[in-house]
Amino acid sequence: MNYQELANKIKQWGQELGFQKVGITDVDLSEHEVQLQRWLDAGYHGSMDWMARHGMMRARPQELHPGTIRVISVRMDYLPPEAQFASNLSDPTQAYISRYSLGRDYHKLIRNQLKKLGQRIEEEVGEYGYRPFVDSAPILERPLAQKAGLGWAGKHSLILDKEAGSWFFLGELLVDIPLPIDEPQTNQCGQCRACMTSCPTGAIVDEGVIDARLCISYLTIELDGVIPEELRSKIGNRIYGCDDCQLVCPWNRAADVTNEPSFHRRDIFNDADLIKLFQWNELQFLKNMEGSAIRRIGHIQWLRNISVALGNAPYEPAVSEALKARLGLDNNLDIHIKWALKEQKKKRDDIALNTARNAKLERLVRIIGKGLPRDA
């Protein structure tokens, strides 16, 4: 069999299935094992115990699917049209939701397309061993994508491509066919540290090293407990995920929007008023988030995240009223609501104090003005 010809066909089939780029690599990730263990030993995975539980299997795809000798790595762009970055982040009364989750959940869509790719290969070569993955198994997808030539690892740890930036999903098809492998891209971040310096919580502790315990995406998505109090004010109005490190990246300036309608912003987010979102009951949340990745965090965690954002919002009596209406629903939620109420009270008191100071200053000016000579 001409494996180079097969590899070329696989890349063509992948693009026909909606993947913007397809690369092939071997399964050797041994050079990443020390770094992975060091990251785990530092506790940077936070409460994501499954990362430590699977250990070095994440760096050994052949243990995940015995017989695997190649990984077909794919990229699917997700940046939606009219992403509205600035309007959402700059208005603290509006919820900011990571751009990847504005549309439908990507897991099933990409996995189905990968399965179709596997079946198309089977039609060509006959029965063989393959298995698709999309965030569904302990596998180091970014190092694999880098080795497969899909891009390089930026200092924010995401894969960057000079044509697409980092606004894309990754997926893998593990196969037992000895396909020719692709060359990795050269790292082109240079001296740029924009992603590191812009992180609201300082979660990028070193180049390519993320302390998940500080990352807003982890805090609002993976962490289902109490968000540390010292981090709440830094979350701002980000209620699901965070894009700050991508927003400042120079390589993202020319990124194309997605061709996949499933990733477009759903209409329910056209008005992302925090109070309105906070007033959804559980049935409304489940209905409105049907088919969304956001649904998996559940209604209580959704309310927890929004309560923090409401605490960070400008003072408004309606905010306190909305927060008080949710007290007693859940113990962990109450912790965040009570914090938010205190933050709102501080802002109300500050407004009252400033108003009193301004009134006093105005009186003082009038008094001084009356005492001045007419020709002064």
Structure commentary:
The chain has helices spanning 3-16, 33-41, 49-54, 61-64, 85-90, 106-125, 141-147, 194-198, 216-222, 229-235, 244-247, 274-278, 282-288, 298-312, 317-325, 331-371, and strands at 21-25, 70-77, 96-97, 130-133, 152-153, 159-160, 168-175, 204-206, 209-210, 238-240. The radius of gyration is 25 Å and the shape is elongated. Strand 8 (204-206) and strand 9 (209-210) form a beta hairpin. Helix 1 runs antiparallel to helix 6 (106-125) and helix 15 runs antiparallel to helix 16. It folds into two domains: 3-272, no CATH class; 273-370, no CATH class. By secondary structure, the protein is α+β, with helices and mostly antiparallel strands. It has a four-stranded antiparallel β-sheet, sandwiched between helices. It has a two-stranded parallel sheet with strand order 3-10. Residues 177-209 form the 4Fe-4S ferredoxin-type domain.
